[in-house]
């Protein structure tokens, strides 16, 4: 079982820890419009970013940054996954102008969180997702970043450098 930190407290993550090189679990989530979105389909490259809730300052800022920085990558599907209700996601995207990426909810079954090993299982944050980034290409995990501190931020520079080195995307 993996752990992250919140200040001085260890937080356990439940589910199977997946590694680079593993086949990505196929999951269908619901978008802000309740439409299905498939995670890990063959023939696609996806960047999956997980956040505890879009209704927090850090997550909101990172969603806006994702919308700006990652949306320029052609032929890449960028998906933010959180535990927010689809209706709240829709309001957030409309208010914040998030229109270059997909937001998807894992609240109903927590299947993404448990399958990808990023579901928080203890503390006051139990039931939320840890902040993480995955790149999935043709159904395989090719990049993984789990933020060690719950209130920390995804390292977009590292993610962009990976995409540049491996797929030729320009650096922002």
UniProtKB/TrEMBL annotation:
Pfam families, alphabetized: Redoxin
Broad class of enzyme this protein falls into: oxidoreductase
Record InterPro entries: Redoxin (IPR013740), Thioredoxin-like_sf (IPR036249), Thioredoxin_domain (IPR013766), TPX (IPR002065), Tpx_CS (IPR018219), Tpx_Peroxidase_subfamily (IPR050455)
Gene3D superfamilies referenced in this protein's UniProt entry, alphabetically: Glutaredoxin
Keyword presence, Glycosyltransferase: no
Domain Thioredoxin: 18-168
GO molecular function annotation: thioredoxin peroxidase activity
Entry keywords, A to Z: Antioxidant, Disulfide bond, Oxidoreductase, Peroxidase, Redox-active center
EC number(s) per entry: 1.11.1.15
NCBIfam families linked to this entry: PRK00522.1
Protein name: Lipid hydroperoxide peroxidase
